[in-house]
């Protein structure tokens, strides 16, 4: 666990939270392979989209040998194992869509998955930390960290759109790295009353948040709403607050009672949680509870960083007290850009969920073209809900409005 730097004598630094100066929350140098003993896992994990398509995934997993997790040692090995077991689990549960789900994950998958999850402090379900942060490699190791030179390690159904969805999200994480690097400068500057360095750092943070919005716009170029909604989305869904798995899922060999976990969502990205705590965005009870719960789906060191930012002396009060024009403007600019990012995100959600959901309802009983058929086969349980299980638009608009309330008056 990371050392908490809430003590005013300790300098706040990123590396005590396993956050990299170059890549932020992105896992540096993810492994592509596990030790040979784990080949039976990787053989299946690397074929999940094809095996789901041929409806063979469940039977192959049912026949899989029980492997011990004890030969996994390094953090990177555990992260790849968690990613591989997660995509196998999502494929296993959702292979037949929402009408033929399973009540139990077989022990050959559930037991090692549980053990690996416990060691990482992650839940036994696909998280943002798996599908995005630990799921990349550079085609040319010396080449740039960009769309052309990146590929996924492990895929979910959805072809190029699945790749686009995870990669664009990864590029949003990357765009935020300059902002993350400035967080310690802001915190340490507030502690010692250095108005100029705090103002400069906030100016850089607002630029970085704007770059995140620009990166998010790439979603339109790389992801088809009908493929996202009709094919991919179910594989990100969880077994909590999901009416097609009302009881949750039994992890055989772990516990006889079913367990409930939320599906993967970028609400599990630590970025906006950090900015909210830094700027003093206060969330309303219900949306705040959902966001707080999402922190349990993050690597523990990242969750700790958010927690420690929240315990620092208030930046907002510092800005008010200093009465510096430049500082106040820089703070307001950060809130403006965060608001713009959240507004743009609402736009994306409307295009990728609300519009296809309305079309699905309309098409369900009509004769269908191929796009219509894809959309109308989408799970109805998720029409009004996010994969994380939230009631989408009310939640997102409340969170955006709370951001607006952070402006200095
Ligand atoms: C097609 C693309 C996307 C869709 C359809 C989408 C959808 C959603 C939905 C439905 C939620 C509500 C929570 C839940 O139940 O899961 C949510 C929350 C959230 N999403 Fe996305 N999302 C997309 C891309 C992204 C990307 C690339 C990011 C950036 C890292 C992001 C960041 C967030 C954040 C931070 C929240 C929590 C609410 C907030 O803090 O404003 N999303 N998203």
UniProtKB/TrEMBL annotation:
Name of the protein: Indoleamine 2,3-dioxygenase 1
UniProt keyword Oxidoreductase present: yes
A single cellular component GO annotation: cytoplasm
Signal peptide: none
Cross-referenced InterPro entries: Indolamine_dOase (IPR000898), Trp/Indoleamine_2_3_dOase-like (IPR037217)
Amino acids binding heme b: 345
Listed GO MF terms: heme binding; indoleamine 2,3-dioxygenase activity; L-tryptophan 2,3-dioxygenase activity; metal ion binding
Family statement drawn from the similarity comment of this UniProt entry: Belongs to the indoleamine 2,3-dioxygenase family.
Keywords: Dioxygenase, Heme, Immunity, Iron, Metal-binding, Oxidoreductase, Tryptophan catabolism
GO BP of this protein: 'de novo' NAD+ biosynthetic process from L-tryptophan; immune system process; L-tryptophan catabolic process to kynurenine
Organism: Scomber scombrus (Atlantic mackerel)
PANTHER family according to UniProt: INDOLEAMINE 2,3-DIOXYGENASE (PTHR28657), INDOLEAMINE 2,3-DIOXYGENASE 2 (PTHR28657:SF4)
Chain segments annotated as coiled-coil in the UniProt record: none
Keyword hit for Heme: yes
Gene3D superfamilies the record matches: 1.20.58.480
């Amino acid at each position: 666990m990371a050392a908490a730097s809430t003590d005013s004598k300790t300098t706040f630094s990123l590396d005590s939270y396993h956050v990299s100066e170059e890549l932020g929350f992105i896992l540096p140098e993810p492994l592509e392979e596990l030790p040979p003993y784990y080949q039976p896992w990787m053989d299946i994990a690397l074929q999940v989209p094809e095996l789901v398509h041929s409806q063979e995934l469940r039977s192959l997993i049912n026949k899989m040998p029980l492997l011990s997790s004890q030969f996994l040692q390094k953090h990177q090995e555990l992260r790849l194992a968690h990613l591989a077991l997660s995509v196998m689990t999502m494929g296993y549960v959702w292979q037949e869509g929402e009408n033929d789900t399973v009540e139990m994950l077989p022990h050959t998958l559930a037991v090692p998955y549980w053990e690996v999850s416990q060691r990482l402090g992650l839940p036994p379900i696909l998280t943002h930390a798996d599908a995005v942060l630990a799921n990349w490699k550079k085609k040319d190791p010396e080449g740039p960290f960009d769309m052309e030179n990146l590929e996924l390690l492990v895929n979910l159904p959805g072809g190029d759109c699945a790749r686009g969805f995870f990669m664009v999200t990864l590029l949003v994480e990357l765009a935020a790295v300059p902002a993350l690097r400035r967080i310690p400068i802001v915190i340490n500057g507030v502690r010692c009353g250095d108005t100029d360095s705090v103002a400069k750092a906030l100016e850089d943070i607002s630029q970085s948040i704007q770059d995140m919005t620009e990166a998010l716009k790439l979603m339109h170029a790389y992801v088809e709403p009908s493929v996202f909604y009709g094919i991919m989305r179910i594989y990100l869904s969880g077994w909590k607050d999901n009416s097609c798995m009302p009881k949750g899922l039994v992890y055989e060999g772990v516990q006889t009672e079913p367990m409930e976990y939320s599906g993967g969502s970028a609400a599990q990205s630590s970025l906006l949680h950090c900015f909210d705590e830094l700027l003093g965005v206060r969330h309303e009870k219900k949306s705040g509870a959902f966001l707080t719960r999402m922190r349990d789906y993050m690597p523990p060191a990242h969750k700790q960083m958010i927690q420690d930012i929240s315990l620092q002396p208030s930046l907002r009060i510092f800005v008010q007290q200093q009465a510096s024009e430049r500082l106040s403007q820089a703070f307001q600019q950060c809130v403006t850009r965060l608001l713009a990012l959240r507004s743009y995100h609402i736009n994306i959600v409307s295009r990728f969920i609300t519009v296809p959901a309305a079309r699905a309802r309309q098409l369900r009983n009509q004769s269908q073209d191929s796009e219509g058929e894809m959309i109308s086969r989408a799970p109805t349980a998720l029409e009004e809900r996010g994969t994380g299980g939230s009631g989408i638009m009310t939640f997102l608009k409340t969170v955006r409005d709370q951001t607006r309330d952070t402006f200095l008056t």
